[in-house]
Every structure is written in structure tokens, then in C-alpha cells.
Amino acid sequence: MATIKDIAREAKVSISTVSFALNGTAPVAEETKKRIMEAVKKLNYVPSSTARSLVTSKTYTICLFIPNPKSNIFKFVGNTLLNDMLQGIGEVIDEQNYNLLLSWDQASSSHSKMESLAGAKTVDGFLIFSPTDQMEPISFLIQHHFPFVFMGPQMDNLTMNTVNVDNFDISYRNTSHLIKLGHKDIAFISPGSLDYLLSEDRYEGYKAALQDNNIRIDDRYLYIGDSREESGYEAMKYFRQLKKIPSAVIAGRDIQALGVIKYSAENGLRIPDDLALVSFENSDIAEKHQITSISTELYHIGKEAARLLLKQINYKRKLSPQNLIIPSELFIRSSCGSQKQL
Amino acid sequence: MATIKDIAREAKVSISTVSFALNGTAPVAEETKKRIMEAVKKLNYVPSSTARSLVTSKTYTICLFIPNPKSNIFKFVGNTLLNDMLQGIGEVIDEQNYNLLLSWDQASSSHSKMESLAGAKTVDGFLIFSPTDQMEPISFLIQHHFPFVFMGPQMDNLTMNTVNVDNFDISYRNTSHLIKLGHKDIAFISPGSLDYLLSEDRYEGYKAALQDNNIRIDDRYLYIGDSREESGYEAMKYFRQLKKIPSAVIAGRDIQALGVIKYSAENGLRIPDDLALVSFENSDIAEKHQITSISTELYHIGKEAARLLLKQINYKRKLSPQNLIIPSELFIRSSCGSQKQL
DNA sequence: CTGAAAGCGCTAACAC
DNA sequence: GTGTTAGCGCTTTCAG
After folding, report:
1. Which of A87, A103, A120 sits opposite B48 (nearest CB)?
2. At what angle do helices B197-212 and B167-180 cross, to 10 degrees?
3. Å separating the CA of residue B43 from the C1' of nucleotide C8
4. In this complex, is the C-beta atom of A96 within 8 Å of any C-beta atom belonging to chain B?
5. What is the CB-side half-sphere exposure of residue B281 using CA atoms within 13 A?
6. CA triplet B221, B225, B231: central angle to 5 degrees?
7. How far apart, in whole angstroms, are the C-alpha atoms of residue A244 and residue A185?
8. Could you give phi then psi for residue A249, rounded to 5 degrees?
9. Which of A303, B89, B128, B275 could form a disulfide with B302, with the two C-beta atoms 3.0–4.6 Å apart?
10. Contacts with A134 (C-beta within 8 Å, 6 or more apart), sequence order
11. Partners of residue B59 in chain A, C-beta under 8 Å
12. pLDDT digit of tens for each residue in chain A (342 aa)?
């Protein structure tokens, strides 16, 4: 492959002039520039990214750090959702000519991959997507002033850039919506283990809304679900055998809502008449099955997180940490019964 | 951040000795090595990957090249499937300490991203995942002897490494299975537009099996589906209004089979008695809904493709191109009716 | 076993 | 406007 020297020789100029012409970092005569460009084309020259990185100490690569695929993270997050996030990130980095490295901690090694990527300066920054709260490597990044954006909730004890939806808030809103419709016996299906911050926040938002409306919180109205439709089905089956059957249910995610619908259909429960239903994500599923659902725009999370990271990377002066909240919208459909009242 | 010089100074040796010790590329006295390792630990040293790359001209990064997310490729491929592929790739590259760059062609730019990544030597090789047949950048790679593996079918006109399932073959097997069960009126739902090689191959395999059994091919028995469950539903609705209703149907993918099941349930068609059903992928869906399905192990495709690529990158002498076919297995469940005969 | 030094391909002062 | 040159941080001969 051709190097800058080859171009210099071919265009009969010095290598610095080639560099200046290519990067626009110093004025170059029109005539000279033309010769250089011709040489570039002729020799099919592309500047070595590593050589350039070595001197500029910029790699133009950011790393999307995700949990090990084995952990079933994708299933947890939902299928189209990772896709949405990648789309958001992709649009931003395409625009600014950055590359995307996808990485995760190996199950085997105890060595933190994030730390070595940062230490070796393989990437310029991190986008961290992790629904759990393993914060050790994050402290490392903070300590070493390495740019990153955490796609999740702000932690009390850490000062960092975050982008997230406010899971507490949207759950509060979902719950309040049902309360306004007159429901008091409202059950909650968590989207996953409560160890996940996302699940916890949604559960807390639910409880807060109940409390603020003087509705007693009943532990029996909580079902720990997961990413499968069945967990919605099973949840409903469980709620159904309680002494006091809930009149409304909040599914932790759209796919669970689907399970609720299925159970209801099979067991003669009419939605929304016998059972009001709301959910999270506002995915295709919600639209298709007329489920009232509040949006959690992973596309926008990805986009804003990438923007924030690149800003952080490219600004000379320190930016004060931002905690972006991607706004959510409640899409009211027939499953919650509020449309009947219009 | 510390550099090799700092380590040398701290350990009171020359930088070459540090390099030797760290890479094991020359014998170093046990005593000296210990001092060096201590310095490394103390200064938290990680060798710069760019500097290293510059001299070794290896980046230890491979690129998974996929269609632009906007193209809905993920939906086409299926949801858990990309996940499976990433898992396969991830296991291999983790093991060998490679990094994974995720990239795609920008919708906007006409400039081929693959060519610039190759030209700038940003990566050591490519894993190309594309169900369509846009082969221009591939010729570029071949021309420049740049390592890559194509995850898809071998093309007649190109000599390259490929890893794939044999879509023709598995479709032939699916069809033959139904024929053996006595079916003659067998309909086919394509998994996507026939422009996709994958769809075409499956369709061709279907036709070949019919032909080999002297069954007339009826164009009306073809329905062009897509990645949505509805397309299976719609297909069945369409087949149902034909003069001669098929007695068996081959869904191009599991999610479509689900649509077929749904339609059948709603319209009093019993499976397998009134309608035999087979599908592709053998995903969770197939297992859950007792659909006979032939496996297409994207996990193994990813794994073998990554292996093949790394082998190619690390071998000094040219390897003759390989065309790996990942074996598939037909999982017989109740939807095809063959179990009744046991 | 260890050190000196060349050089990977590029950028960016600094001269002219 | 353009050329000379000193590195960026590392690997790797080559001496000793």
C-alpha cells in the first residue's frame, strides 16, 4: 500500500505538503494540491489510521461497551431495541467519521477489558450500556479522566455523563394514568429482576404513584417477570388467583403485555373492561395490539449519548457532567380503557 | 499515561528489555523481569495499541461489516439471530484477544467504508454479513489480498472464503420431508424478497425437491413473505382462497410459521391434520410452538467465520479459499404430522 | 542477557 | 507556500 512518501515522490513535493493538502492544515497552492490529489487517486492512497493516531493521539473510534452476550442482555433489553440504539449511535458517528468498537467483558478473564482499551488508548471514549450496577471500571475511567457516557441512571456517588429515560418517572406516569381512570387495585409486572436498575426504578415509580394517592401497596401485586411473553402470561395467571384480583395491570414491557393479553383472551377477561393494561416501550407490539404504552426511545438514547461523548472528546475544556433525560410520551390506546371516556 | 520509557526508567533497564520482557520475544533474566513487572503495575502501564500497530502493522481488530441498520437488516435476519452471531464471533475473538469493530456503509456517502477501513489499515480483516449481493467492495478486497470471510453463499464468479448454511439444501430437505409424508400440494412462504440470496436459495431448494419427485411447481403456491408474523398469517389467508388449497406449507422462517398457526387456529384448520407445517431456523419459537424446523445456526456461522478469518490473518502462507457449510438438523415436532406415524 | 539505534507512517513546529 | 526535521511509542535487528 502506498504511503505519504509515495505520494510526495509522485507529486514531486515534500511529505509535509502532502499532509497539509490532505488535512487542510496549511495553505497549499491550487496547482500543487491538484498534483497531490492526482497522485492520491493514482496510487489509491489512504492515510494510515494508526500512524495518524500515534501522533495525534486520537483514534476516531469509540467503544460501545455492553454486557457479555452470554448474559442474555439482548433478550433483556428487547430485540429491536438494540437495533434502535445502534441506529442512533450510528447516525451520529457516521456524521463525524468515527468508528464503533463493540466490546464486553469476557466471562473468563478477570481483567477488565474496558480498562485495557482505555489504557492502551485503543479508543477515544466509551458508551456504556449496562442495566446492572457494576461500577468498578467506571471509577477507573473517572479517575483517569477518560471520556465516557453512561446509558443509564445517574448514581448518587458518581459524577458522570448519563443519558437515560427516567424510568421512575415514566412508571409513575403509567400508574397515575390508571389511578386517574379510577383503578385502585393495580398490579405490577417487573420487566426483569429487581437487581436491574431499570426494573427497580420502574417498580419504585409505581409505588410512589400509589403512595401519593393514598393507595396501599400490596406486595402480592408484584410479579417478577422477564423478557419472555410467558412471564406476562404467568403473571396474570398468578394475579388471577389472588383473593382480590387487580382491575388493572402494568406490564414492565410490551412483550409481557402481550402475554397478559393472551392469558386474558384464553380466560374470558375482557381488556379493557375487566382489566386495564398499560406498558412500557411503545414498540411495534404495542402499536399492533393496541396497548397503551409509554415510550422509551433507545434510538434517541443512543443518539444523544453518542453526541455527548463526541462533544466531550472534542472539547478542549472540561465540560461539566450532564445527565440527559430522553423524554417519553404516553401513547394511549384501547388497552387501558381511557378512550371509552372520550 | 505511562509509556515504555517510564517503565524502563523505573526498572532501570533499556526500553528494548522492557519490550522483550512484556512480549517474551527475547530471554530476560528472572530478576530483571520482576523489576519490570513491578514498574508496570506501579505505573499502571498498558502498551499503546496504536504505537504497536504502527510497527507491527497489525491492529488486532476485525470488522464485522453489516448493512446499514436503517435497511432493517436486523429485522430481516431475525432478532435473536444477530445476538447468536455476535456470541459466536465474540467467543473466538475474546480467546485470541482481538477487538471487534462494527461498521456499515453510510446511506449518505457513496464512498465505500469498507475500502477506507482496509486502505487505512484500521482493521486486519472483515467478516461480511450481507444477505444481498452487492459485491463491489468485495472485489476490492480480493484485489488487494485483504483478509475477509463472507457469511453467505459462495458466488460463482468470486474466489473467497465463505461460511454459510446451505439454504438450498435445507429447503430441499424440508420439502422432501413433507413429500415423504405424502404431501403433494406444498406451498412455500419465502422468508423475504427473492432478491435476497437466502430467500432465493430456499425457494430453489423447494422447487428442486418438487421436481425431483415429479410434482408440478405451481407459482400460486409461492407467497413472498417478510420478517413479520403477519406475513405468515397473510400467506395462509392467501393460500386458503386458492382452488386447490395446499395440504402442507413451508414457512420461510419460524416467525412466519407462527402466523400460519395463528391463522389456522382462527379458521378451524387443524395442524398437522388439515395442514402440515415446517419451517426454518429452529429458534425458540419453533421449540415453544412445536413447529418442525430445520436449524440455521448463526452462532456457529459467526464462530466459524471468525475462526477462518483469524486463521487467514495469522497464517503466513496463503490458504486456499474455504467454503464452510454449517450443518443443519431437522427438528421434527408435531406440526408436520410425522410423529403420528411412529 | 541487555542496550543502542533505526524506523513504522504520519503531523506539526520551524525555517526559508 | 513549501521543505526539513523532530518526534508519537513501540518493535526489532544488531552489537556486545
Report:
1. A120
2. 40
3. 26
4. no
5. 28
6. 105
7. 8
8. -140, 140
9. B89
10. none
11. 50
12. 899 999 999 999 999 999 999 999 999 999 999 999 999 999 999 999 999 999 999 999 999 998 877 766 555 544 566 778 888 999 999 889 999 999 988 777 777 899 999 999 999 999 998 766 567 788 889 999 999 999 988 887 788 999 999 999 999 999 999 999 999 999 999 998 898 888 999 999 999 999 999 999 999 999 999 888 889 999 999 999 999 999 999 999 998 999 999 999 999 999 999 999 999 999 888 988 999 999 999 899 999 999 999 999 998 677 888 999 999 999 999 999 987 654
Q: Which three cell numbers stand for residue B261?
A: 398457526
Instruction: Check CB contact under 8 Å for A90 and B69.
Output: yes
Q: What is the CA radius of gyration of chain B?
A: 26
C-alpha closest to that of B328 among B298, B297, B299: B297
- Residue A136's identity, in one-letter code, is E
CA A54 / C1′ D8 distance in Å: 5
CA torsion A149-A151-A152-A153 (nearest 10°) is 30
- In this structure, chain B runs to a length of 342
Least Cα distance to B69 among A64, A228, A331, A198 occurs for A64
Q: Between residues 142 and 161 of chain B, which touch chain A (CB distance below 8 Å)?
A: 144
Q: How is residue A235 written as a grid cell?
A: 403473571
**Is the Cβ of A99 closer than 8 Å to some Cβ of chain B?**
yes
Question: Would you say the pTM of this structure is higher than 0.85?
Answer: yes
Q: Which residues, in sequence order, are CB contacts of B33 under 8 Å at separation 6+?
A: B21
* Nucleic strand D near CB of residue B25 (< 7 Å): yes
| The C-alpha cell that represents B166 in the structure block | 446451505
Q: How far apart are CA B232 and CA B286, in angstroms?
A: 14
Q: How far apart are CA B312 and CA A321, in angstroms?
A: 45
| Coil, strand or helix at B89 | helix
CB B208 within 8 A of CB B172: yes
Q: Please give, rounded to a whole number of angstroms, the shortest distance from the CA of A284 to a CA of chain B.
A: 11
- Rg of chain A (C-alpha set): 26
Name residues whose C-beta falls within 8 Å of residue B189's C-beta, 6 or more positions apart in sequence.
Answer: B223, B225, B231, B232, B235, B249, B250, B251, B252, B256, B260
Residue A42 vs residues A1, A10, A161, B119: alpha-carbon distances, Å: 12, 9, 45, 14
Q: What's phi and psi for B224, nearest 5 deg? A: -85, 110
Distance CA A11, CA B196 (A): 45
CA dihedral B39, B44, B45, B46 (to 10 degrees): 150
A60 touches strand C (CB under 7 A): no
Q: Measured at the alpha carbon of residue B138, what is the angle toward residues B82 and B133, in degrees to the nearest 5?
A: 60
Q: Give, as one character, the DSSP assignment of residue A191.
A: S
Lateral strand order in the sheet of A292-295: A222-224, A186-190, A248-250, A276-281, A292-295, A330-331
**DSSP-assigned letter for residue B45:** -
**Which amino acid would we find at residue B199?**
S
For residue B40, the number of C-alpha atoms closer than 13 Å in the C-beta half-sphere is 16
Peptide bond into A272 cis (omega under 30): yes
Q: Which three cell numbers stand for residue B148?
A: 475477509
Residue with cell 433507545: A298
Alpha carbon distances (Å) from A232 to A190, A209, A223 = 9, 22, 9
- The number of C-alpha atoms within 13 Å of B133 and in the hemisphere containing its C-beta is 15
Q: How far is the CA of A27 from the C1' of D4 (A)?
A: 18
Q: How far is the CA of B35 from the C1' of D15 (A)?
A: 24
